Amino acid sequence: MRTGIYVDSDNISSSGGSYMRYETLRRFYEASSTVMIARAYHAFDEVLAEEKPEYANWHAAHVSRIQGAGFRLFIKPVKRYTNDTGTSRKGNVDVELTVEVLTQADKLDRVVLVTGDGDFVALVHALQSKGIRVEVIAFKNVSSDLVQSADVFLNGYLVPDILAGEAQPRDRVIQIMSVDLNAQKAFYTHLTQAPATFSPDDPAWVRGEIKLTKSMIDSRNFRPGKILAWRGRNADEQAFEVLASQRV
């Protein structure tokens, strides 16, 4: 399968993926296909970089991390507009991403859109009309329309080791699939490696169960669709942190 990966870098960075390892993302899809194209799109605010050295330093490191992972990077300068209500900034890369995907689509069997932006629903439908499989990966603040339109949606938190730095002090990330309140149990799944398919029967997906206490049930954090960071071996309430929610 010929795959193209397209990352809306600013959307991902502001929605849970600021520590995303681009190399892990690429290798995740290389495990099940040939990655023909790996592209990332990013807006750069030159004025802000002059005003805030920390932003300039972050940008330089961000660019280095993306390019070092084998992604070609498109950088769009942020434009500023002044009117009666003040100064506004515009640095949206949606058009550039969409045009490139559609231009390159004939070379691909699968397009992976790494974004949670609902503005890409029309692009998803256009690709599907060409017979191209569209998969979406994002972390949080994901458009429900985008999730429903994609052939496959995978929450990025579930990809092993995809987050670097202080955002990843966890043993595993799990998704609650179902809950038996009578038995006080929650049943979960998590990924141990890149799956060959996105079938729930793929051996990369591991199932387990958690014994729930009354406080865990009352917290409403252990409901179907909840994506949790599990720190430590104990299954008490303090060992879990809610990262996102996803319909299952």
UniProtKB/TrEMBL annotation:
This is NYN domain-containing protein. It comes from Pseudomonas duriflava. GO terms for molecular function: RNA nuclease activity. Pfam families: NYN. It comes from the Bacteria. Residues 2-154 form the NYN domain.
